[in-house]
Amino acid sequence: MVNQHPVSPVLPHPLPGAVGLSHLSAYDWEAADGVCGGSPHLHLVCSEAYVVTGGRGAVQTLSPAGYRETPLEPGSVAWFTPGTVHRMVQGGGLRITVLMQNSGLPEAGDAVFTFPPEVLADPERYAAAAALPAKTGPEAEEAARRRRDLAVEGYLVLREALEKGDNGPYLEFQQAAARLVRAKVPAWRELWRAGALAAAERTGAQLDALESGDPAYLTDADAYDASPTRHGGYGMCGRREEYELPGTTLPYRGE
What we know:
Layout: E1 20-26, E2 41-43, E3 48-63, E4 66-72, E5 77-80, E6 85-100, E7 111-113, H1 117-120, H2 123-130, H3 138-163, H4 168-181, H5 185-212, E8 230-234, E9 238-242
Antiparallel strand pairs: 1-6, 1-9, 2-7, 3-4, 3-5, 3-6, 8-9
């Protein structure tokens, strides 16, 4: 029997799996440790993938397994699950395409910078440190670089502890990040229902229809295309090209 309660998409025509999509050019700003790259951070509920399209570099990660640096070159794919601190570092012309689980959630604050503990403990102070005053221009670049440096400051403490076999600071950061975003979870749940969950449930309804011999849903078939609608935004890891489409990738708040 055909599913009598198919899920109507709230986000029209999402990408496959309702993933988010953007393109990044890694920052070439040198940080306190002499490395050029982005702002270390983690995601609370979203896995993220890097598909390298040009240049060279690496992604540095912190996880319960410790510190790891994964080389990136054209054709490489690297991905990390929620809770993994990651930092994209520049090796020369590094460009990646980012695929993000649960489109809409990262843009709604699922990502948390590795700021020092005293900043994470104060939601207002965290918000001020994470925000950018404009989308583009010298003021935006200065603020993006300042928050990158602050995130690296906290990150280096976590990395040093893990390298010494002490995962306490890393676990404390995860707990602080979870406390910081807790109030946002109800809104995230609605985004997830409208996006990734709805996409999965539509597949279930389509399987039911095929099994019953009634593929009428195929009459809705169509093709779509899009181009970036914003170039050179200041993302967490680098300069960002975005697709400002419902169900795809919306701009990060504060950028």
